[in-house]
Design brief:
The complex is a heterodimer of chains A (113) and B (109).
Chain A (H helix, E strand, L loop, with lengths): L4 E3 L2 E4 L5 E6 L6 E8 L3 E9 L2 E5 L6 E5 L5 E5 L8 E8 L8 E2 L3 E5 L1
Chain B lengths: L4 E3 L2 E5 L4 E6 L6 E7 L5 E8 L4 E4 L2 E6 L4 E6 L8 E8 L4 E3 L3 E6 L1
Parallel strand pairs in B: 2-11
Antiparallel strand pairs in B: 1-3, 3-8, 4-5, 4-9, 6-7, 7-8, 9-10, 9-11
The chains are: A mainly beta (113), B mainly beta (109).
Chain lengths: 113, 109
Amino acid sequence: KAGVTQTPRYLIKTRGQQVTLSCSPISGHRSVSWYQQTPGQGLQFLFEYFSETQRNKGNFPGRFSGRQFSNSRSEMNVSTLELGDSALYLCASSLGRAYNEQFFGPGTRLTVL
Amino acid sequence: SQQGEEDPQALSIQEGENATMNCSYKTSINNLQWYRQNSGRGLVHLILIRSNEREKHSGRLRVTLDTSKKSSSLLITASRAADTASYFCATDDNNDMRFGAGTRLTVKP
């Protein structure tokens, strides 16, 4: 089985722009979760989607949004980028709820200048 | 916000030695998981222990869970240079998955 894929792998944006990141889960996995990882805050949970519905959301501002498509692929969007949004964004998929074993993608490294 | 806190923050050992990392958390959980992350890459699931389990083994890994103390430990026996990575505990409390800050393990050959 192919693993979780994330595109793009690297991204450079400037403040005020918006960005869309994509995640393709392992075939058959219906749960997709997104995390932000920074040196200062560590791994922070953004949101979880299951069958196109957002099930849980972390403590992030409304500039962070996401969606899941019928084929379980997921996108996350960050609008009005700030310098502090520079981070590694990780996507993880699992069979059922996110609380089972999660399989992580390699991440998208976002740099905001 | 983070739920788990790993201890120590960094650990340096010689190949062949055992490495022990600890994780403490704050709320009741359904399960606790340990993940490994090599520098700047995605996380790899190591082991999951449910709240009604006390100990679990997987190869050279041994995980314990003490729900009364809200703590878990990960023991890596006979460490190898390839075990050099950051190790995170993650807790599930039915709301979301929360990761600790991680322990950076360095295994010197």
